[in-house]
Protein 1
Amino acid sequence: RTVYVNGAYLPEGEAQVSIFDRGFLMADGVYEVTTVIDGKLIDFDGHLARLERSLGELDIANPMDRDQWLEVHRELVARNGLDQGMIYLQVTRGAPGDRDFVFPDPDTTAPTVVLFTQSNPALVDSPKAQRGIKVIAIDDLRWGRRDIKTVQLLYPSMGKMMAIRAGADDAWMVQDGTITEGTSNNAYIIKDGKIVTRALSNDILHGITRAAVLRFAREAQMPVEERSFTLEEAKAADEAFVTSASTFVMPVVDIDGAALGAGTPGPLAMRLREIYIEESR
Ligand code: PDD
């Protein structure tokens, strides 16, 4: 695999980043995941706009303009012959000489930029989507700025492990009795034909897939309510699903061991999945 690091295209085994990088020492950096279907980037401008916002919130200068970012994305797709999968992009505050809590001077310490591709031939025709996933509820113990897509993913990773150890696929996080989101996706329930998902705030990541799916749902005359919902409400829902760049619309069939509806992917979730894939590819 060819990867990109700080201006160079290199075989993955030759790419290097300093041990003093603040991404490594302090999780001081942000990332994006952009899906590729048939060699085409999905929602590139949305991901770039969010990258810009995440960097701005952390006072990291955006090291490239839109066309430069696009060029690197396209070059990696071409060099790796990527058909279906994703491009991972990470920008950290860079590597000053010493470990220090104070931000380094941006004139002397440049951000570190890393991009790589990851292939996933089962992205569109996903066996998991045909089956649906099981989730468990866990406390949301993350920091309060989940709207910034930082590389600080330890708790989401622990949540995913708690789910797997409990025989489920993923975890939904609960704060003050309501669901915030999944470990790496936005969460939705459907009751009496109405799609309910938490409103945007600092509590959740502003999903690029979320924005597209809600737009398609409204275009298809499906009612949408952006509000918080409780775990009890979720367990009593007709359907549930999650969205992310790497899963599109993924039906949820079980919450904390309670099957939703027939315990199989719901018809509206599956329809939204089809619409999303057709409209964005
Ligand atoms: N995760 N919420 C969280 C906490 C996420 O990490 C993600 C994305 C989303 C969905 O955002 P989008 O639709 O823009 O992908 C919501 C990515 C895919 C990841 O960490 O791999």
Protein 2
Amino acid sequence: HQPLCECNPCYAGPNCSQFISNCSANAGSGDPYFLEPFWMERPEKSGILVSGWHRMGYTYSDGSYISEMLVKHIKKLHQLVGNVVTDGRFVVFGGGSTQLLNAAVYAYSPDSSLQSPAKVVATAPYYPVYRTQTQLFNSRDNRYEGDTSIWKQNASSVNATFIEFVTSPNNPDGKLTKQILNGSNVKTINDLAYYWPHFTAIPSPADQDLIIFTISKVTGHAGTRFGWAIIKDEGVYEKMLSYLDSNTMGISREAQLRALKLLDVVLEGDGKQLFKFAYSTMKNRWTKLKEIFSKSKRFSLQKLSPEYCTFFKRSRDPTPAYAWVKCEREEDENCYEILKAAKIDGRGGSLYSAEDRYVRLSLIRSQDDFDILINYLTKLIDQE
Ligand code: PMP
């Protein structure tokens, strides 16, 4: 039952106990290794064995690319957590939520030979894939048009459809957000990748027209590449389905089988074990982080307020996946470089269309990565 023993890249030796001196803290990518210990405690229950003859065909027995049983599991999970309304909603699967982001842009875009191309927008600081993906596909039916702030006053009078990405809690700063633009010509794609008790209070179930989730940030299986969209309107659902059909003929049957098995384990008993584990891990990490930053005048963390959580039935502080650090000194214009010189590898603010005075630090990696990060942060802040 032992996992393959691979040392954290900062450690060597037979027991992975020798720290490689001067090794930088990896606080860059959002690989969700913080959930690995939960799954290591459940090695057999959470495993699948796929025989050579299993599901060799393209479709399920009903001719679709979507496992009905998995749809039921997903709806059960949402009902348990109370983070989204699923009654009467349609569900589409994607290769990670990444594939669904563009499927949703496609579904909301008009035929540009008849109307102006849709304007795709987001509010800084935002997850860069919304922009890079729209630009990569370079469709005649939609175009990336910058920050919502440019359109805030006049969106409703512009003769075009707006497609606004709303990320809540937001990546990188962890804030619960709402749509900025108003008007009957505004459609929103609500990316709720982090709307789980791991990271935030759940004040009420979301019920926007188009909502996207991913398994990556709930069970932590980013490598499975599995996401889902919850859709109100049948026409939008049909368009997203046809995108998925033409693009990849749905999602790998093995990925769907693994997702089903993982959700089976999550839903076991009272269905709260994963959420208790994830929240307590994130809470411990945030307690340590806040303590260190409370001693600093040079660096600050994002300010977040407690909210009532309907899942835990009490008020709680947010425990976001990322620290959004600001360098407060006038001269510290490039915060990424300052942290890098102190052996802390984060991601610079400009990647998220914010100032380089900000840096994102990932808090959802392994315990080793987090401990190394805390170590270097302590040293840096002690020097002040
Ligand atoms: N949306 C947001 C806000 C994210 O942070 C991420 C992953 N970092 C994704 C979508 C994509 O997730 P995936 O493709 O793994 O489902």
